[in-house]
Write a structure and sequence with these properties.
The complex is a heterodimer. Chain A is an all-alpha fold. Chain A is built from 13 helices and four strands. In chain A, α4 packs antiparallel against α10, α8 packs across α10 and α11 crosses α12.
């Protein structure tokens, strides 16, 4: 019954075809346009000799006309920040912001790596050992649990101060930003932590970051779309007062969302340190801003209540394509930054313009 | 059988030294529509806030559906069966109609704590049923609330009552912010509630609306009830006289 095109009295309808354009479609369109732009530049720029960014017509090495190697790089280089942005997306939909995720990556990487070290490096004692022998060659589950627990701790502190002490999210997480940066430098007094066990090194090896990113994205998309957790996150971001009057435990829910975000950032730190086989105090610099940028490009509104995991994944892809594209047309990194900045501003301007038009049309 | 759904005895609320509400004795019977009128600051909204648990009363009794009640918050009142439509719409703009109707009391497929799975299909079906019952016309219930007119939004808020078979509906100035057509739409829903025998307390400034819709008018003045009028036995001029203080019913003399 519910699925028929028209229903019951007067204008009361439930028409699937009339459902509004998903916001994600525009991000997808932008992604396609950017790819086409780089393809065109590859064709027409004199020094490019008609190369193609994503296609490989001449020698189909992998039996595919797609340039698989470049596609892999595009997604691999955004996968780890992408994991963070999955959490940041939820926080922004909730109507908050999380600036602490970048330094949290640094701090978590340092701490986790200390529990993931191997005793012997080429037959010699580990030169970077943080703890004594007791912390050497632990099962991979130990650093994983330590890392996620640390993330949960930081997230719950963020959430507590925002939800119960009513400190603006910007300030609370800015404070946590500095605290985490301090922790990461204090942990070993600035010394890098290296030489993890083989099993730990596997977590971030070759394309594993992409597997984690896509897997988590699918899981979180389902959670945000089909569970009470997701619905209440949107509701609070949309109208906190209405959510409270509807009986949602707004404070508890906020703590949960900030915990979720910090745990995802901590997991990103695990993947990153595993991939690099080392942890350094400066790791994750600017990651919080890139993660926010990915979400914003993907259509997540900083006023809360609007956006989706799919949008953020597409936003991350836009990021990856632009980075790769600038390398492809052999332009220097500083142009990349300028272009990226323009695209972030452009994305928000376009989105606002579209929202206004949509509202005035109906 | 006792057909009184809500009764207050000596309901009083003081904000520090301000006596916003003083000894209000008030009853609503099952199926009855009662209007609360009065000037600004007469205590109408204070009265509603005590009943719905938004604020805690200074003293007095509230008997709802035969039992004395002490609601700690609006949610408890709602769970007990008192549905309130506020002047400032308590709707989540970016969500659609079923999401808003079921906010905070979603229908679930599987219970898994915070990660319980929502039953969208059931919520959509019950939304359509409720809208049909109240005669609310909304072009597309899957559209987000922000794309709807003020009247449609107000209708969505009111449709909650029909969805959850509340025992008592309270509307605080439901049409204050609406245009003529939208007001008519809301008034139609109120009539549907009347036909369905659902009791209603309507707080309103609109004399025509009150005369059109309700059975009984209770007038508040300076924190006290000063008149309890059957619609058939009064008229607009009479009510205004009570509101402004030109007249007071004999049984409420001490209030003046």
């Amino acid at each position: 019954m519910a699925d028929q095109a028209s229903h019951g009295v007067g204008g009361l309808t439930f028409d699937k075809s009339k459902r509004s354009w998903p916001n994600e479609f525009n991000v997808f369109l932008a992604l396609v346009l950017i790819i086409l732009l780089f393809e065109a530049l590859g064709q027409f720029l004199p020094y490019m000799n008609g190369q193609s960014m994503l296609f490989d017509f001449n020698e189909a090495r992998d039996g595919s006309i797609l340039n698989i190697a470049r596609l892999k790089i595009i997604i691999l280089q955004v996968a780890i920040i992408g994991i963070i942005s999955l959490g940041v997306t939820q926080v922004i939909i909730l109507g908050g912001i999380d600036l602490s995720s970048g330094p949290l990556v640094g701090a978590t990487a340092m701490i986790v790596m200390s529990f993931a070290q191997t005793e012997l490096v080429n037959g010699n004692p580990n030169p970077k050992a943080v703890f004594g022998l007791w912390a050497m060659d632990l099962a991979v589950i130990v650093p994983l649990i330590v890392g996620l627990a640390f993330g949960a701790l930081i997230g719950s502190i963020n959430g507590f101060f925002i939800a119960f002490a009513r400190i603006p999210p910007f300030i609370a997480t800015l404070g946590m930003f500095l605290i985490c940066r301090g922790i990461s430098q204090w942990w070993t007094k600035g010394q890098p932590v290296s030489f993890p066990t083989d099993s730990y090194a596997f977590i971030g090896t070759s394309m594993m970051p992409v597997v984690w990113f896509i897997g988590l994205a699918v899981l979180l998309h389902l959670i945000m779309r089909y569970t009470i957790y997701g619905k209440h996150t949107y509701a609070i971001g949309s109208n906190e007062e209405a959510a409270r009057m509807s009986g949602i435990n707004v404070r508890r829910h906020k703590v949960m969302v900030y915990m979720m975000a910090s745990m995802l950032a901590a997991f990103a730190a695990i993947v990153l340190s595993s991939k690099n086989l080392t942890a350094q105090a400066g790791m994750g610099q600017f990651y919080e801003l890139y993660a926010i940028a990915m979400a914003v490009i993907g259509g997540v509104s900083l006023t809360g209540g609007r956006g989706s995991i799919i949008g953020t994944v597409l936003g991350a892809m836009v990021f990856g394509v632009i980075q790769s594209g600038f390398t492809f047309i052999k332009l220097d990194a500083f142009y990349q930054l300028m272009a990226m900045g323009s695209i972030i501003i452009g994305a928000v301007v376009l989105d606002q313009w579209r929202q206004q038009r949509a509202v005035s049309k109906s | 059988m006792n057909d009184i759904i809500l009764e207050t005895r000596g309901l009083t609320k003081h904000y520090g030294g301000v006596h916003a509400l003083e000894g209000a004795n008030f009853t609503v019977r099952k199926g009855e529509h009662v209007a609360i009128m009065g000037d600004n600051g007469a205590g109408k909204s204070t009265f509603v806030r005590q009943i719905t648990g938004v604020e805690q009363r200074t003293r007095g009794e509230i008997i709802f559906d035969g039992n004395p009640v002490h609601f700690a918050g609006p949610l408890e009142a709602r769970n007990a069966g008192i549905e309130t439509v506020f002047q400032t719409l308590a709707l989540a703009d970016q969500l659609d109609v079923p999401d808003n109707l079921f906010l905070g009391r979603e229908i679930l497929k599987w219970k898994l704590g915070p990660f319980s799975i929502l039953d969208y299909k059931a919520m959509r079906q019950r939304t359509l049923d409720a809208l049909e019952k109240t005669g609310v016309k909304i072009p597309n219930i899957r559209g987000s609330i922000e794309r709807m007119s003020g009247g449609q939004r107000q209708c969505v808020a009111i449709a909650r009552t029909a969805t959850f078979h509340s025992k008592l509906t309270i509307m605080d100035e439901p049409t204050a912010a609406l245009g003529v057509q939208e007001t008519a739409q809301v008034e139609n829903i109120v009539r549907t509630l009347k036909e369905a025998g659902e009791p209603l307390i309507l707080v309103s400034h609109n004399m025509r609306q009150v005369m059109d819709l309700v059975d009984r008018i209770v007038v508040f003045r300076r924190g006290r009830i000063c008149a309890n009028l059957k619609k058939e036995e009064t008229n607009g001029e009479d009510v205004v006289a009570y509101i402004t203080g030109a007249k007071t019913q004999p049984e409420y003399e001490d209030a003046a």
